Each structure stands twice: as structure tokens, then as C-alpha cells.
Amino acid sequence: MTDNVNKGRRTLLLSTGAVGVVGAGFAAVPFLKSWLPSERAKAAGGPVKADISKVEPGQMLNVLWRGQPVFLVNRTEKQTAVLESLNDKLKDPNSESSVQPEYIDNIYRARKNNFLVVVGICTHLGCSPKYYPDLVPQQFDTEWKGGFFCPCHSSRFDISGRVFDGSPASRNLDVPPYTYLDENTIEIGNDGGQV
């Protein structure tokens, strides 16, 4: 008789345990799904398209990508002509320690020489630099050749986003992955599979 009671108890315990495991599985699915990023979070990190057709030479367009400003600058020939003359005044003229895609390796730091795409966040403490396009003396630099100046702690960057010696910023402005979808459209956050 004790064998029958023990078998009954074992069956009851096994059945209860199995139901408990199945129930825990059903409870775990919504819990684990809550760890996945929401659709809003996915969209915030997704690529962003920008129409650059109306950005005149010398002008800048500011686009938001992943909650950060991205500067799109249509540089003039006059602005890009001074880049080589600035090399001896820069911390990293060849962008060796910069955060940028592998396909960005020239003095222009761009896919097209005239069009710069950089994250508009100073690499010192995260302020947003201001664009000073004119090649004229400024209060912060009497030999200014165009570029970006961060008013928070006086970091200076040339028109390619390369940081000047003596600036508190440690590295050049970051270049996000981007590609041209056509002559008038840039997609930031997608390199188009190009290298």
C-alpha cells in the first residue's frame, strides 16, 4: 500500500513540477521580450536621410541622428584650399586616432571633397561647436581659416573637423557612417556597403 501512495505522490509532484516549469516559461517570455528595444528606440538609432540639394557652398545643414546633431557642410574651394597649410597646427592632421569609417582617409575627411559630414559634438565634453565659415580673424583665433569653435572650453576645429593643437578636445570631430543615395540625398547611419 505504501508503494501505491508513494507512486501517487511522485506522480502528483512530477505533474505539479511540469506545470510549474511550463508556467514559468509562459511568464518568462513577456519578461524577456521587455528587454528588447522598442520600435521607438530602433527608429532613434536608424539611418536618417537628408536632402542636400539646397545647401549652397559655404552653408551648413544640421540633421539629428541618434539624438546627436550631424553637421553637413557644403565647403567652398576657398575653404578646402587651406587644409594642407594647417597640418602643422593640428593634433591629428592625418586622422589616425579619429572615430571615422575606414573609407574616410583623406585630408577632406569626406566621400566628396566639398561635402563634410561630421557629428556636431565636441570631443572634449560634449558641447556643440559653432560653425564659423569665413576665413577672417576671429576673437578666438587671429589667423582663422574657417571651421568650428566650441564656446564651452574653446576647442577649435578646421573645416574638416580636425582639432587644433592647444585645444582641450582630444581628437577630431567624429565622422558617422554615411552614403550618397543620389546627388541630392545623403543617408547618415548607413555606409551603403561601400569601403
From TrEMBL:
Chief location: membrane
PANTHER family, per database record: CYTOCHROME B-C1 COMPLEX SUBUNIT RIESKE, MITOCHONDRIAL
Entry cofactors: [2Fe-2S] cluster
Source taxonomy: Bacteria, Pseudomonadati, Pseudomonadota, Gammaproteobacteria, Lysobacterales
Note on how the cofactor is bound: Binds 1 [2Fe-2S] cluster per subunit.
Domain Rieske: 91-187
GO cellular component: plasma membrane
GO terms assigned for molecular function: 2 iron, 2 sulfur cluster binding; metal ion binding; quinol-cytochrome-c reductase activity
The family this protein is said to belong to: Belongs to the Rieske iron-sulfur protein family.
Keywords linked to the UniProt accession: 2Fe-2S, Cell membrane, Disulfide bond, Electron transport, Iron, Iron-sulfur, Membrane, Metal-binding, Translocase, Transmembrane, Transmembrane helix, Transport
Protein's name in the database: Ubiquinol-cytochrome c reductase iron-sulfur subunit
Catalytic activity: a quinol + 2 Fe(III)-[cytochrome c](out) = a quinone + 2 Fe(II)-[cytochrome c](out) + 2 H(+)(out)
Compartment(s): Cell membrane
Listed SUPFAM superfamilies: ISP domain (SSF50022)
EC number of this enzyme: 7.1.1.8
Membrane topology classification: Single-pass membrane protein
Domain of life: Bacteria
